[in-house]
Amino acid sequence: MRNNGIIEVICGPMFSGKTEELIRRLVRAQIAKKTVNIYKHSTDNRYSEDYIVSHNKNRIKCHSVKNTDQILKLSKNIDIIGIDETQFFNESIINTCNQLANYGKRIIIAGLDRDYKAIPFGPMANLLAHADRITKLNAICMVCGNEANFSQRLTNDDSQILVGESEKYEARCRNCYES
Predict the structure, then answer these.
(1) Tell me, what DSSP letter sits at residue 88?
(2) Which residues, in sequence order, are bridge partners of residue 134?
(3) Alpha carbons within 13 A on the beta-carbon side of 29
(4) How many Cβ atoms from other residues are within 10 Å of residue 143's Cβ?
(5) Contacts 24+ apart (CB under 8 A), 125-132
(6) pLDDT band at residue 49 under the 50/70/90 scheme
(7) Whole-prediction pTM value?
(8) Closest to 123 in 3D by CA, of 36, 7, 45, 5
């Protein structure tokens, strides 16, 4: 009899604690003596290539990958797979997560559910549809202090992917968000 696989999604805007929550769950799995592999897309090079790092500077060792084939190859004898910044992957991440879950693995992914234009970001909307568990986090509006669900871009760059932190983004509530 094999374990039941599961797909867990942690989502929300910038500065909501997605990576922090992912790290917390993965550390608990390591304490439980589960085999854990952690991945992030190679696009995310803000802090480190070998770690996922939260804005609070908590970190955990990871594999930086360019595509989902690498995740499948490295996850054969692994119980729990963590994936950060999942919005940077293409739609193949959905099949990868389903395939791994069907093999009895626990998949924990974190990513922005919406981009700076407040539209679904990459494969995240479809991943939410396939998820067994969803945790949607909120940030604090950096203008008024209310609960924030939007990522406000502070630059004029209009590309969907622009890796950055507080110099390029703010968390905003619905009232303070400028579309």
Answers:
(1) G
(2) 9
(3) 21
(4) 16
(5) 126/91, 126/94, 127/7, 127/9, 127/86, 127/93, 127/94, 127/97, 128/9, 128/11, 130/7, 130/94, 130/97, 130/98, 131/7, 131/8, 131/9, 132/6, 132/7, 132/8, 132/101
(6) confident
(7) 0.91
(8) 7
Contact 10, 108 (CB under 8 A): yes
Paired tokens of 109: 């992914």
For 69, the token pair is: 């084939």
Residue type, 24: R
Phi then psi for residue 136, to 5 deg, are -105, 120
Number of Cα atoms under 13 Å in the Cβ half of residue 1: 1
Is the model's pLDDT at 156 over the cut of 90? no
- Which residue do the tokens 């590309």 mark? 159
User: pLDDT by residue (tens digit) across 102-137?
Assistant: 999 999 999 999 999 999 999 999 999 999 999 999
Number of H helices, E strands in the chain: 4, 12
Tokens of 129: 């549809």
φ and ψ of 66, to 5 deg: -95, -25
Identify the active-site residue in 21, 85, 91, 165: 85
Q: Is 170 a catalytic residue?
A: no
